[in-house]
Specification:
- This protein has about 650 residues and is α+β, with helices and mostly antiparallel strands.
- The chain has 3 domains: about 270 residues, no CATH class; about 120 residues, Sandwich (Jelly Rolls), CATH 2.60.120; about 100 residues, Jelly Rolls (Sandwich), CATH 2.60.120.
- It has 15 helices and 29 strands.
- The strands form 7 sheets. Strands 21, 22, 23, 25, 26 and 28 form a 6-stranded antiparallel sheet that branches.
- Helix 10 packs parallel to helix 12.
- The longest helix is centred in the N-terminal third of the chain and has 27 residues.
- The radius of gyration is 34 Å and the shape is elongated.
């Protein structure tokens, strides 16, 4: 029957006609007692747990270094109106709630062991191995951040070498790139990037310790299953590789060692999950070998430098070298024992190796260790978008390298920097005050190609009052940024970024209320500008594709690492030209020193370190376009000795 033909007699009864339960039936004596018990239990649980948390709060986790700084900044900036104060209160309650921690002690192991559930910052791998999510990624697939960091380490090595200090970098492979068989199949940690990082450091002349080969021979686990740090086996082998490198390839002999097996994986899981020791009986068990030296007279790590005299080997590192409790790790203990001499450990948990190195340089009070070991966790090279972004702090703590000379700007003769571009505002005088002030020094009116490998340095002199100024050196991408503070009247920074620059910039930003009495801006170099050897320029001759010019060099000594070829190149018009410079050597061979696109009026400073040991006799310029309006000028500039 259709809905429209339904009679009124077939309609459902009115709502009020439906029978309702009697209130008397619901509110029986037994039900009232049960309700009171339920409500009382709920209130007791709520107020009882609150009383426990209030009267006997749990100890919050102790934060160190950067994490502690970020927490203090959040708390100082918390406000009621935007909800940030409420979030801080909730976070503090979460950290100190004893009842919550007791509940989590049972709940978290249940989720982990049944569903492999872990905090969002972690990834559960095979065989119970935990990985840190942010270290599973790479910052940039084109390798640009890594190359910037490599270049800056190369400059640091060169600077320290000129001061008589050996820099030994220990790039620590990531756990995610080492235990590849335990990484879940849905993730790719890109282990090849760790290999590329070590290769790039070697190619840049940075002396490194490669722990991967010695690790590959170990049957014992190298990383803790529930932590991002090494097992004692991994730490001991890393110490052996480092000691061998310090001894220039001679492997030291292990002193007598006492070893034992320790069941500590459950504690590590509890610590990683933030449960401390409350859940150790419910988490997976396991362990690793624990070692200690039996001979008391072997080398020991020290936390403080000697008052006077030379400094011992300085280890600048992170939590791989000193744990959160402030004690030395087995890596440092083993390194000192293998070397048989003290190792000054400036590492601390929660800080970067740059922090540790700066701390050591300051505490040395003008003294620099003859050997500095820089422990560099792999994720700081690969998994962050701006690796070693704060390395300028190290440069500001170092004395200037010996042998620097001023590279003249816009001089008439010899190899000099191009004349400053109009509009540059970094000039002597008083700057800043009421508004934000941006000062600029641009020393290349036209194209200037230059190496970013510690060949050039920027020196600023002046007096700041009212606060700090931000100084940016070099052109993009990723220029070097430094913090200029009152009381420092001289700022010396290397020119270092990527490849060869096309413009040379220095920026100074003065915040509101900060003033600068600026004195001078100079570009320094460790090239022997005064002793530069000028080439004799022949006439340029036309070719089917452009022109060719030969510049003869007088007989000289073989090239050394760091030597450069300086060139002034001009031609009519404003269009860029494609050019190449071929070196001819005394043995009859040739090689291309540079090829690329240059401006119609360009200054080029081309590194010749790749041809060290060979003696150049001439430079041949080949280019497209019109004949040059002026003879091309070239100089052979030797690295200052």
């Amino acid at each position: 029957m259709s809905r429209s033909s339904t009679s009124s007699s077939e309609r459902p009864a009115p709502r009020e006609a439906v029978a309702a339960p009697s209130a008397a039936i619901v509110a029986t004596r037994a039900q009232r007692i049960a309700s009171l018990i339920a409500v009382g239990t709920l209130l007791l649980a709520l107020f009882g747990s609150a009383a426990v948390d209030l009267l006997s709060p749990a100890t919050p986790p102790k934060l160190f270094g950067i994490e502690a700084q970020k927490r203090e900044q959040r708390r100082a900036a918390a406000h009621f109106l935007d909800g940030s104060l409420a979030r801080e209160f909730e976070e503090r309650l979460r950290e100190t709630s004893r009842m919550r921690r007791l509940g989590l002690a049972a709940w978290v192991p249940l989720l982990y062991r049944t569903l492999s559930e872990v905090p969002a910052t972690l990834i559960a791998g095979r065989d119970g191995v935990l990985f840190m999510r942010d270290r599973m990624t790479v910052a940039d697939n084109d390798g640009t951040p890594l190359q910037v960091a490599v270049n800056r380490l190369a400059v640091l090595r060169h600077w320290l070498q000129r001061l008589g200090t050996r820099l030994l970098v220990v790039p620590l492979p990531r756990k995610e790139a080492t235990l590849t068989s335990a990484v879940p199949p849905t993730y790719d940690a890109h282990p090849e990037r760790d290999v590329q990082a070590r290769a790039a450091l070697r190619a840049a002349g940075v002396e490194i310790v490669d722990v991967a080969p010695i690790w590959a021979q170990s049957p014992e686990p190298l990383f803790a299953r529930a932590d991002s740090h090494w097992t004692p086996t991994g730490a001991g082998l890393a110490a052996l590789a480092t000691a061998t490198a310090i001894r220039n390839g001679v492997a030291p002999t292990w002193p007598r060692i006492d070893s034992a097996h320790a069941d500590s994986d459950a504690w590590q899981y509890a610590s990683t999950f933030g449960l401390e020791e409350l859940a150790t009986n419910l988490l997976p068990a396991g362990g690793h070998v624990v070692m200690r030296f039996l001979d008391p007279g072997i080398g020991k790590p020290v936390a403080e430098p000697p008052v006077d005299g030379p400094l011992p080997i300085q280890l600048a590192g992170t939590s791989f070298s000193r744990n959160a409790a402030g004690t030395h790790t087995w890596f440092v203990e083993a390194l000192a024992g293998l070397l048989g001499e003290p190792v000054w450990n400036t590492a601390r948990a929660g800080i970067t190796p740059v922090d540790a190195l700066v701390d050591g340089l300051r505490r040395g009070k003008g003294r620099i260790a003859a050997t500095i070991v820089l422990e560099l966790p792999g994720h700081l090279l690969i998994s962050v978008p701006s690796p070693l972004h704060d390395i300028s702090r190290v440069f500001l703590e170092l004395p200037p390298p010996p042998g620097l000379t001023e590279l003249p700007i816009g001089a008439a003769a010899g190899f000099t920097l191009p004349a400053p571009q109009r509009g540059s505002t970094l000039v002597p005088g008083a700057h800043g005050g009421a508004e934000i002030t941006r000062l600029l020094a641009r020393v290349a009116k036209d194209q200037f190609l230059y190496p970013r490998d510690a060949t050039l340095y920027v020196e600023l002199r002046g007096k700041l009052t009212g606060g700090n100024a931000a100084v940016t050196v070099d052109s993009a991408p990723r220029p070097l940024v430094a913090d200029w503070k009152p009381g420092r009247e001289r700022l010396l920074l290397p020119v270092v970024s990527l490849g060869s620059g096309a413009m040379f910039d220095v920026h100074v930003r003065l915040p509101q209320g900060v003033t600068l009495q600026f004195e001078s801006f100079r570009v320094l170099t460790d090239l022997d500008v005064a002793g530069a050897t000028a080439a004799t320029a022949g006439r340029a001759s036309g070719t089917p594709t452009g022109f060719e010019q030969r510049l003869a060099l007088p007989r000289s000594d073989p090239l050394a690492a760091g030597d450069c070829l300086g060139v002034f190149l001009t031609r009519p018009g404003a269009e860029p030209l494609t050019a190449s410079f071929d070196l001819h050597f005394a043995d009859g061979t040739t090689a291309t020193a540079w090829s690329g696109t240059a401006g119609s009026k360009a200054t080029l400073l081309l590194p010749l370190g790749a041809f060290a040991g060979r003696t150049p006799t001439a430079v041949v310029l080949r280019s497209d376009g019109k004949l040059p309006g002026k003879p091309t000028a070239a100089w052979l500039l030797r690295r200052s000795r």
